[in-house]
Amino acid sequence: MSEQNNLIEKYLNDINELGYENTLTLNSKDVAKILSVSLRTLENWRNENLGIKSKKIGKSYFYNKRDIAEFLARS
User: Fold this and answer.
1) Total count of domains within the chain
2) Where are the beta strands (DSSP E) in the chain?
């Protein structure tokens, strides 16, 4: 397993330990909390395509837990 994959798995485990083990997708509030950033920062990253892939449903944005781990591994 590559170092990148090891990092992704580590971050997935870290996210699960925060209480999200039964969740595949997270909302903006959860992601901001995990990344220790404001909702505004997360919104700016979305607008500038700098952050994590997200899917808009209605007025809300949802994020895949693996995409968050991949973002952390790249950071």
Assistant:
1) 1
2) 25-27, 55-57, 60-64
Angle between helices 3-15 and 65-74 (to 10 degrees): 130
Taking only the tens place, the pLDDT of each residue in 7-24 is 999 999 999 999 999 988
Q: Is the Cβ–Cβ distance between 62 and 54 less than 8 Å?
A: yes
Q: Look-up: residue for tokens 């995409």? A: 67
Mean pLDDT for the chain overall? 92
CATH number at residue 64: 1.10.1660
> The whole model's pTM is what?
0.86
What's the DSSP call for residue 60? E
Range of the domain at 55: 3-74
Q: Which residue has the tokens 């500038």?
A: 48
